Batch of 2 targets.
Target 1
Amino acid sequence: NEDELVHDGETVQEAFDRHIVDHKRCVEANEKFRKLLKCREKLKDIQDARAANREEENDVEDDDPQLTGQIKDAMNDVRDIDTGSGLTLQERESMLNVDQKRIFDHVKAHLLRQIEYENKSKQEKGQSESVKPLHMFISGVGGTGKSFLIEAIKALVKSLWSTLTKQTCVVCAPTGLAAYNVGGVTAHRLFQLPIEHDGQCASYWSIPKASHKVMKTELQDLKMVIIDEVSMVSSLNLTYIHMRMNDLFESDKWFGGKNVLFVGDILQLPPVRGQPVFDKVTASTLKYRLGSMSAVNIWRDTVTYDELTINERQKTDQKFSEMLDKVRRGFSDDETLATLSERVFSTPIEKKFKIVQQGGNAPVCLFPKVDMCKDFNKTMLANLPSPTIKIRATNLIDGTGSIHGLVNGALGTVQAISETRITVKFDRITDPCEIEKVKRKFMVMKNVFVYRSQFPLILAFAVTIHKCQGLSLDNATIDLSENVFSAGMAYVALSRVRTLSGVHLTCLNPKSLMVSSRSIKEINRLRQLYRPDLPQYAIPTDCGSRKRTLTGTIDEPQAKNQKNMPPPKVARDKRSRPSD
């Protein structure tokens, strides 16, 4: 029928051209759909093969109640950490800026469509198209209010499904501090992901029956998972998360058929080990870890995109904000280097720590490497006026429970120490906490385990730059020497601080200002597809190869009435590693 083919006011040629475009789009959509089905079938084959072996695995692993107890603790932490700030959903929504509100409204509209579909009768569902889960990456530079948006979306989900009794929205992040910052737990703890040993990522493992039941019961009402600081999640761990969710919710859909929001900035820190989250998991990796022969790219096949562009953290220091943008994109010019060199101090770092503290600020020292943090922490500890007390690690039989709902990475100050407990005033908890020893299981060789009991605390005068991603600080002492080893590391450290005056550098090597051209290309791809109104980033020809080291001096105020060194800062470390 010609009337159906040609619209009013349209020529036959115009109608023909329009149908050609529509046909091309349909072909492209069909091709993408076929790829998605093929990719999902690959992962389903992997899970089916692993499920066939579960019975034998369960008979062995469930003989050890330690694992089930640890998973119960993890689920308790998921529940206990979700306390909220006391703000209502309406209050949170009213505080969103226009950028945040746009994304919030998009998420809200999608969830309301899901609820509308869920409430339909079986017959009505058969006559209408289902609403697919939302798998979305929310990006933005450091300080654009991603954490505040997370809190608002979390409150929204809880409000929409308020009649459900279990967790409807859970938040996680790759590190303890990042998780703590958004009221969540680590991704490894939430999903019981394999832990790397000796620097190698572990293979996926199936959860035994008893432990599986604990997780499934606590997460039975789950509607949304929010993964913050997604830049530090490897593509392999993303695959593991998908498989764990499919296992828990007995689904063959992406991420168990649940909504998943990925939040972060892929120009920040990449995974410590493994490929970036947007990379394809190679066939060789999948064959070695999962027994699969085909490569998979869950990120590219499933994730949509939006971006926050209004910087809230450095909005009072526009010059600093513009400088950070140059560092982030890999275009640190002479003006940027000159500005940063003026923040380098020559005072010994221990003295600088005291000066900043006596100015009424809580100093945080950020180093690129763990060994550098250990050395500084030992130096600070040695300068404390109190005597040293050594308590041996002991072997125990019974475990302790979850401690106050705290997660790995919570920061606090020691107030008292005894042989059986340590009193710590954590930064975000009103009352001091009594920290007791916890038991952990370590494999020393195949089928040979030891149990250690230790206080789950480590010194935290200094922390690694990886642990600080996601934080907002008034002051930070930062090492940007040749020890900076990763793209995005310098930017992350600098952008944690609200103003340039709060930045104190021990050293500045221009080569430390590295960026990842692959990450820039991925942002450009996502912008082109989902935010074409935003410009494409230029790819720097030099991603961090300058050789010279800049030094300078900040005028130091005279420290008057100097006091003793501060009590030790500690971070909660639930790994409870064996003693040296």
Target 2
Amino acid sequence: MAVSNDISGIICDLSMPGTDGTAFVEKAHAAGCGVPMVLSGMASHDSIVTSRKAGANGWLVKPCDGREFLYSLRELSVSMAPPNR
């Protein structure tokens, strides 16, 4: 997996061809690649817990409207911002 310093976050689906979102998040996290956030239609407690343990920092249940999507991105960026000094 190539790592770029231009990537500040990743949004991926939990269910993808050839891999699953949790495995992708683990690989991205291990490579130091941004802040993965899983975008998924599955909202079971187990899915959320597993994704968080893999390194996901946010969760968005599909379907969602644009406001929910933007709110989640804003919350993720605020939570990952360096503290004010």
